[in-house]
Write a structure and sequence with these properties.
- 3 copies of one chain form a homotrimer.
- Chain A is built from 6 helices and 18 strands.
- In chain A, strands 12-18-17-16-15-14-13 form a 7-stranded antiparallel β-sheet.
- At the A-B interface, α2 and α5 of A face loops of B.
Chain lengths: 345, 345, 345
């Protein structure tokens, strides 16, 4: 299966990779071991010793490098073999080292040509920067192709059916706009003159009884990095007067049939000590529908598709599919361009 | 794998598909959702929305049609899209609808060309008609190709070895006759001058001490629909003086390696209130050997065959295989004829 | 996958195949049923009736032959059909019979051309002969190709990393010699002037405080039959003054991805009644690291290799790989020679 290789992929939340611990994760069918140097800098190496193919994550961290669990070969943070307990250090021995960068509470790995890896091209998620935000993060493993998850977030018209708690007449009557600015896709939903459930009034700090204008704007960047802006304001007032919360929904392919689902919310540190608790509670609350409503349907779809591709199955396209089809086409174009540049890795 | 498509397959017992509930079952590698109209009429649709391929059985019944769980598209009982909450109803949108008929306590689905579906061609099982019979039904899922189950029922010489409770000298010395009338195959076993175990005397209402003549006649029709007539009479008397019980053994392929096993027994309503209890008890009793004696051997055979076909493995054919080989040939001929008529669906 | 076929494979420990019981085991992707004649002689037949492919191990032993569980065909110890309850005995009917020999507390099966099977070519394991030795045997099933296990035993430089309990400065500084005598490969490790842990002093019956010279010599014969000689002597003295224990490590492929691991130790009967207990305890103690240290790494390597072959992955070869590469080459040459002699079975 063709993946976009020259791209930053969210490999792990920062909190998943702890000091002095080796952390394994498979990305794009490749086994990675992630860890931190003694100064905290994250490192990603191929999780396979070139000698006998043992997974390095079963070994240990030695001198900011990794020691193989099987025969003790040692590799530096750059993947070079620096010690062989059984003889001279083999000059050519190395494991692949993946460029990594830590930003927005996450460790991002570059899975393609290292020469093209510039952290500037990481999809921006400013609201996950721990300097100014209390960030709540979550993770689910999904048995489905990652683009099925892109579809799910880019078309929130499913809320009414999959998440009945959030449904209402106004949600049903929402207006949707799909557009792209270069390779960034937007799916924007406008819900007007809504009388939402109580917890939404509370979230947006709007007095009960008022009609509410709401918006659910999703920004997509390749490969599957999305921001969901959830906002509300007293009906008729400008957005600036309202409240907007932001969620991250980032999907990294583990394989053609399995996906790492990273989601997060945040509250400004400026709110005070309350922000941290809010972030933790919110992300825990979100897990409910993500796990018990979205995950089952997306995985059932994957089972129903079997080994056939999305386009081979000739999907019926509706107006609500505008944004997800835009995203699928942009991603396919990027992968095609990469494939014609160079043979697949 | 080639299936016979222009055929009625037992899809579910009537009792499995309850009012106001969606019921899923995979037949011939295709996902089906079964349900009942408000007047009770059964319906079978493809269990895959043409929009995003969600399984419709996860949705709900609305206006005698099905609403997709994901984005709320609605399909009528004939599979036509009748509602799109997000815009105009897409004219071309439909899910495949399978002709169904309810007969003999079961719902039968036609998996081929709808134009050729006439309920008259359903294999007759009069003794399962609920009007005159109390029917006890059972279901097992078998990890084996369905023709291995056909073989099992069409050759009951295995009784002596697999079901020792039913074995005797006379069973061993049984005479067997294999014949076909058109595309119907019969395997007939005659057991004469038997002294069977007590429960058989009781079942046939014959005084202990008498010698018994017994018969085990199996009727097969494609694809794998069998009646087993189990009878007994005082030795030397004509069959009409004896008692005959009837069992149904129907096998519907789920996939090339898994099979739905539907079995049933019945007692005439004319017997009075006792009949219902007898039917329930008998089918429960039968489950024992079916599950703990037949199922393990058939599944072990399937494992032993791996991915090789029955004929490729060059089976040693014995006289006892007459009926099952007849059935295999008739089914193969029907499938071949169908395949040369039209490309496989 | 190509196996060496003209070879004796350890099929089961003698104790695994009990009188009057059928024992199943799959070797080289073929199902075998093992049992004993009334005089104790072991027999190995193909575990698949030629009639309907039922596994014979589900049947029973009758007259020193096997009766099929399904329709009662009976096969003699040589695989010839000798009884058919349903008609004349089919002359051509037989199951494959594998030459077997019982030696060294094990039953060995010949998986190739029977004409070439001479028990003389069984790899010698004299220290497992029950006449003179109390033998402790163990078994593990490994999810990995059997040559990965050969690699593991032929290169004990992993001890320091995988089995820290046995590590020491002297172990680290061990000298290694890899050589072959014809098709027999030796990997010899010399550990000199060691101060080992207490249990090693006890095992070698050397007073604590003495420096110890130790050796770990592995002898390999195709396909994957190894002896490990573990010895120790007061430093500077000749080996003959010391103590040597012997272990067997024999790997029989079940399939391309799964392996039967047979291991054993023994103590001379001449030691008296204590020997039996020692054998039992030692083999139980060994199971610990084999199961919790070697097995996980070997299986993790197999997962990391996926469907790629060892050589395709271009392993980095080190000095420590001398013996295992010798063994891999000898085995490959034998398989190649066999394949060019005759088409694979």
């Amino acid at each position: 299966m063709a993946y976009l290789r020259n791209a930053w992929y969210l490999a792990a939340w920062s909190s998943e990779v702890r000091a002095a611990e080796l952390f394994q994760r498979r990305l794009l069918d490749e086994p990675l071991v992630l860890y931190r140097l003694s100064d905290g800098t994250p490192v990603a190496l191929q999780d396979r010793c070139p000698h006998r193919f043992a997974p390095l994550h079963m070994g240990k961290i030695v001198d900011d490098g990794v020691q193989c669990p099987y025969h003790g070969l040692q590799f530096s943070e750059s993947g070079t073999c620096v010690a062989n307990p059984h003889g001279p250090v083999p000059g050519a021995a190395r494991v692949r080292s993946y460029p990594v960068a830590e930003r927005y509470s996450a460790i991002w790995a570059w899975m393609g040509d290292p020469a093209q890896a510039t952290p500037d091209s990481i999809t921006p998620f400013e609201f996950l920067s721990p300097e100014h935000w209390c960030v709540g993060t979550g993770y689910l493993r999904i048995n489905a192709h990652y683009e099925l998850e892109t579809d799910n977030i880019l078309d929130l018209s499913h809320i009414e059916f999959l998440h009945p708690l959030f449904a209402s007449e106004a949600v049903r009557a929402a207006k949707v706009q799909s557009l792209h600015e270069g390779d960034t896709v937007w799916s924007k939903r406008f819900i007007t003159r809504d009388t939402p459930p109580d917890f939404i009034y509370t979230g947006f700090n709007i007095p009960r009884g008022e009609l509410v204008d709401r918006w659910l704007d999703v920004r997509w960047n390749a490969p599957a990095n999305m921001v969901l802006n959830v906002g509300g304001v007293i009906s008729g007032q400008p957005r600036e007067k309202g409240v907007q919360l932001q969620q991250a929904h980032v999907f990294t392919p583990e394989s053609a049939t399995t996906t790492h689902y990273f989601y997060a919310v945040s509250f400004p540190r400026a709110m005070g000590p309350h922000a941290e608790q809010l972030a933790r509670q919110s992300v825990e609350t979100l897990r409910g529908p993500f796990e018990s409503e979205d995950k089952p349907i997306v995985e059932a779809i994957a089972r129903n598709m079997g080994t056939q591709s999305f386009w081979d199955l000739k999907p019926l396209l509706l107006s609500i599919d505008g944004a997800s089809v835009l995203a699928r086409r942009i991603l396919a174009k990027k992968i095609d361009a990469e494939q014609s540049d160079q043979p697949p890795a």
